[in-house]
Amino acid sequence: MLRAGIFCILLLLTAAASAQSQLTLYGVIDAGLIYNTHQAAGDGSRFSVESGALQVSRWGLRGSEQIDPDMRILFSLESTLNHDTGSAGAGFGGNQFSQNGTSTSLFDRAAWLGVSGRYGTLTAGRQNILGVESVGRADPADLAHAATNPNVLLSGMYAGALYGGFGSNRGGAALRQNNALKYLSPAVEGSGFALMYAPGEQAASVRSSSYAGVSAYYSNGRDGVAAAYGVFRDQTGAASLEAWAAGVKWRPSEQWTVRASFAGDVVRGDITIPMPGNPQANANGRRITVGGIGVDYQHFPALVSTVAAYQSRRSGDVPGRAAQYLVITKYSLSGRTVLYGSLTLAVAASPAPQDTMLALGIIGIGSGYRSAWRVASGMQHVF
């Protein structure tokens, strides 16, 4: 009888502990058909079936445990999902510098553990840079078409081939940083701030391959404004990339939403970042800025359209300029499944590489064209 009673108590305690723990499997599967003109000389149009055409396909595990009334343990593991080929994860520089990244990370989007309480949230691991989680919410296209979105690839410094090996990734994508510590303050009347530091973990150097950033925001649940600033250092510690961004989201009515952002960055110090036709290009003083504005219109609960425009500029080493104009329509079949279609026009100042590079693949570099159209349609399912 005593053993039976103890067993029942243990069952109750286990059930109580389980009730306080949560584990969620989640993800997005986005399958799109894309037709893109002017990808190579002689027209060179391209037709493709792509994963993550509108929003990046991904899967992840998110969990938490309430260990007392004022403290919760959190973790997140999230991976890019290329369902068109079955692969997962993305590359970064690894322990050695690589312009485009060579080490494949399964949980490339997030891999962190942290604690949250009345004084804020502290997390450690591979995490988004601060601009993504603050100014990213004001992206004119709501971060649509991430693979060619100027705020993702340029102000988010995602393109290692363009930006070089700044930050703790030592190449590849700088949008997320390895070995990072992040602190998010509690929100006070809608306002808050965040701090982040990622050491390069190199012997005899606390500056090399590091990232440090700060951001602040205000939101009333409807409208909001955010700003972020960060410094990335190269593997030698002698060169840095300073980046800043600001954005605003405004909902004048239930049907209309306006988002606008401005971001920029500048290279300080001698560092070689190859570009087409000049593999020994010195990027010291190079500046890139991205400005954009977008408007959402909710036709009815299931149908929303977005019109957005971006202007990207390069200066300091060679001048460059390109623009993107997008129209996106989404129709919700259910609370989890969306049909979408989009039309994008990219226009560069000239067919030269320093201009077409800022079109981020919509115009083929070396194609001889300074403009291109992209048509995309597809389905997105959230689980």
TrEMBL record:
Q: Does the keyword Transmembrane apply?
A: yes
Q: Which residues form the Porin domain?
A: 11-344
> How does this protein sit in the membrane?
Multi-pass membrane protein
Instruction: Tell me where in or outside the cell this protein is found.
Output: Cell outer membrane
Annotated InterPro entries: Gram-neg_bact_OMP, Gram_neg_porin_domain, Porin_dom_sf
CDD domains according to UniProt? gram_neg_porins
Assign the protein's first listed, main location to one coarse class: membrane
User: Where does the signal sequence lie?
Assistant: 1-19
Its keywords, alphabetically, are: Cell outer membrane, Ion transport, Membrane, Porin, Signal, Transmembrane, Transmembrane beta strand, Transport
Assembly description: Homotrimer.
Tell me what this protein is called.
Porin
Natural source organism: Undibacterium squillarum
Starting at the broadest rank, the lineage of the source organism is:
Bacteria, Pseudomonadati, Pseudomonadota, Betaproteobacteria, Burkholderiales
